[in-house]
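G., before I forget:
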Amino acid sequence: MLTNNPFAELSALISPSVMQGYVVLMILLVIGGTILDMMHKQSARYFFANSKKAQKNATRKVDNGTKVGLAVKTVANEVLTSSEFCNSRRRMSHLLTMYGFILFVVTTAILIFKYTGSGTDAPALIPLLWHLGALMLCAGGYWFWFSIRVDVAAEGVKWNHFNGRGDLFILGLLSTATFGLLWSIFQAAGAGAFSKLLFALFILSSVVLFGSVYWSKFAHMFFKPAAAFQKKVAIADGSRENLPDDYDLSDPQVHARFPDIPEYMGANPPNMGLGIKSEPPRHY
Amino acid sequence: MPTFVYMTRCDGCGHCVDICPSDIMHIDTTTRRAYNIEPNMCWECYSCVKACPHQAIDVRGYADFAPLGHSVRVKRDEEKGVIAWRIKFRNGKKDMELLAPITTKPWGSGTPQLRDVEPPTQEQRDSQLLFNEPKYIRFDEGDIHTLESNGLEMKEGVDY
């Protein structure tokens, strides 16, 4: 069941070119929504103004090679492993949802463009990855929805409370993955009319997900890496957003400048371990 | 001036929510980032600023001593056991950094193990001193100073 290409069976009902057109339309919706979102929030303007301000305070010049290195670091840490989350539950849920979504979207495009209506059967791996992506999306998403989502536990709001724009993105993701999975399963089981209803819901949810970019937080996947990169550049060029330096406490120069450190902590202070951060906040 | 949050730095972890003594740092339900729900009630204790693991919270000083354009920022590194401040004047004449210890031994290692402490003797029970009061916070080596120990009596009309 999980190795069936659900779109191949669908091609009897809807022609492959319509499906391909639909995928292209969704991509255009995402691009358009992101541009509108950027214009409305003026996020690009904010980033450029911020980086100009940082350049004014810079104490050294960052060459392009270092910038590329920082960009690679941002991709490796913030983008691929969601390292900005200090709460491990949120990080795991985010990773599951993110990789699930990527798998789901990429395999959908491959299945529709390459293996639907072309007469060749998809290798078992690709539909399997499509189902796995949807399952990962459901696992990470429902975990977030029922237990990690803010104000579920901390503010005493029930799980069924729908918070408009704040929940639009996660609900779009969850309904798309859930109805997609159910549609595939019921279609493979031969439930004709019911599977068509599930398919209609799947399409409706995906329109909500990709069409609501302007209102939802879909666009975070574009500006969060930009913010992380800018933070790294600010450290590299010495502007540090006016933050103090990271001092090496065993450095004699630091001792000479701040005599309190060797006097109270010794010449080579040990790692003090975690204080308030040893107990992460649970409800956010 | 009260705290404010740099939205692009905040990851909504909730450390500021937990630590705020006025309970006015909350997570916005739409953007899932922290914000100060009642700036009028913020007394600028800097707890959230120091607790934030991303340095996403800032405080503006009052205009009378810290005019616009200045910056006072802090970075608390609990693993190193130090806190660092950077103060910049808006005229650029002063850009000063300070570094101070916040602990001299690993966190949690100084917690008193009251279970292992000897119970108070009858003499300690009768004393006016607190049980297990460390010797070094006392002003003398003996008992506390009272009117009686100093050969004095309570007199009407005298402020003691």
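Residues 6-236 of chain A form one domain. Chain A has a mean pLDDT of 90.

More on Monday.
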